[in-house]
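Revision sheet: structure tokens.
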Amino acid sequence: MIETDILIIGAGPTGLFAVFEAGLLKMKCHLIDALPQAGGQCSEIYPKKPIYDIPAYPEILAGDLTEKLLEQCKQFEPGFTLGERAETIEKQTDGAFIVTTNKGTQHKAPVVAIAGGLGSFEPRKPVLKNIDFYEDRGVAYIIKDPEIYRNKKVVISGGGDSALDWSIFLSTVASEVTLIHRRNEFRGALDSVDKVQELKDSGLINIITPAEVTALIGETQLEAIELTKLGESPVRIETDNFIPLFGLSPKLGPIGEWGLEIEKNAIKVNNALDYQTNIPGVFAIGDVNTYPGKLKLILCGFHEATLMCQAAYQIINPGKRYVLKYTTVSGIDGFDGTRKEAPKAVIKSIN
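Predicted:
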């Protein structure tokens, strides 16, 4: 049996940052993830997708963010159970939890932090005849390697952040990018909407709204799509690739059977305190949780992980007074095993 201080379910960005914050408090972490590598969606689905809202990084690829987070937390030597899904949880008489995976691996910890992102998921597919036939033959729902689209004609459908971000990114990769949306208004970040409009004005992106893709054309490989604008006859557009980006349909999976309070496929938490669930000792951080005013941003997950670790410290060390120190003051172990010392000043005490 694997024993640790905090058992983190989900090795995405929020889970990895929680390792770092826990390490500053001298707590050990072990992570479980159904994927074969750490990073969550950032590694499995969007490794080459640029992210623009990480502090100090005007732009960073999702895969590179994972690498940085792993580098940041490795000094605290977290354990990993990868390629296994957390199935059951049992409360023990000593107050600890035992979490067992689908492969029978057992983990014991006094604190469990669910950082499973959207949970298990599958892409939302448009209702188009024979779309399954064209998968891997020109149709894709996820962009893992943008180099596949180098000097190709690409049609993207969607109106959210993913559709906008990938249209912007592929404008420098593909020979032609066409963005189609069924409404005139996009629902993504305003900066991205403005950038797409600039690229359209520069002739680097074609935007067609309001319109929908109504058919796929090609005998053995996608050759074109049929496009229908509101009130007009269908037209044919030649393309090498069609990428509908309508988001993901998330599912909590076995975690949804743990007795947690669920709202709209997300776990309700107490955000006024520490992001604890209705089960004492079990927390939910990142995209998997919900509360009034929730924003599904990596940045918010980092904040939630920090406060969760403070509460976890009190559970693991009941009654023990903790002196909070800034990392610039207390010093932390360097990645090379050396000690980074800093002046012993400016400390803030909390109960």
